[in-house]
Amino acid sequence: MPRPFSRLPEPLAFIRHFTPSWFAMTMGTGVLxxxxxxxxxxxxxxxxxxxxxxxxxxxxxxxxxxLFLLRLALFRDTVWPMLLHPVQSMFLGAIPxxxxxxxxxxxxxxxxxxxxxxxxxxxxxWWLDAALALLGALLVPYLMFTRQHHALEKLTAxxxxxxxxxxxxxxxxxxxxxxxxxxxxxxxxxxxxxLWGLSLSxxxxxxxxxLLRLALHKLPDTDFAATSWLPLGPLATGCLGLLSxxxxxxxxxxxxxxxxxxxxARDLGLIGGLALWGAGLWWLVIAxxxxxxxxxxxxxxxxxxxxxTFPLGVFALATFELQALTGLSFFAFVGLLxxxxxxxxxxxxxxxxxxxxxxxxxxxxxxxxxxxSPAVSVLxxxxx
Length: 384
Fold this sequence. Notes:
- By secondary structure, this protein is mainly α.
- It has one domain (about 15-384): Voltage-dependent anion channel (Glycosyltransferase, Alpha/alpha barrel), CATH 1.50.10.150.
- The chain is globular.
- The chain is built from 13 helices and no strands.
- This is C4-dicarboxylate transporter/malic acid transport protein.
- It is a multi-pass membrane protein.
């Protein structure tokens, strides 16, 4: 059996080669905690399991943030190659998305433990998250348009990652607003709707390009298998954000001239949420078929596999939200199936990640051209 970290290419490689794609692990773990906590049925131990997973996600986010900051401080020569890399730069969007998931978990698990002071902390963290999400949604596309090299045949849904981050922040705003004072809630929701519109409109444009690429050039290489699931993310998050912000709006704007608009947002939110859920259902089915195709090709593991988890988890959360609003048992049944599927996928990806960490083979940044898995050579070729 290989010794732990025996495949590290150099001392401190886990810092020099640390990439933002690790934050996808926080996203996947955090969303599993939220899905378990939102199950319509209460079973002994489920809440403790969900809370434990959330604490794991918090620990991972803190560790990854430290490693990323150390890379920026100690290895400044690696920053520009990361920003210019056509794939690794996209994962900068995973940082605010991971933080948004933790904020939503803070509202669920933090208040019973530490009291209502958590709401003030969550509000501060949300504005930080929104700023990071907006920065990524502007910086990465700007680099795409001015410095990076892209081609239609190499396009994958990974382009969505920096664009979807504001939308994830918006969905969290709907959960936080009911716990704030009226003025703070109004500011939060207005910002949330702006972020939602900014993100979803661009996401639809990119999904259109992804469909064109698939029709003309067929499926990407097996190293990008998980990207087939990424378009499900903005559709599911768009549904969840529209539902949660729509439900929070009437209370936040009660007694103001915008109360009628807030009530309209609540009603249209349900209709729009159902429409987006339907679009997500189509992509869920097509992504499942794509994955069956990839499994036959013996796809090799890489950190991109975490892309299987978050879109599926957010779609499950949107499904449970629809069940709560409509009372239809159909959504509860579908949500349960999605939750079971998510738990199975997370267990597989988490175990494979631990094995990769043990051997040190995952600490190889594609933008630095280090040796490693097939994904490294593929991504390095794209960067050139």
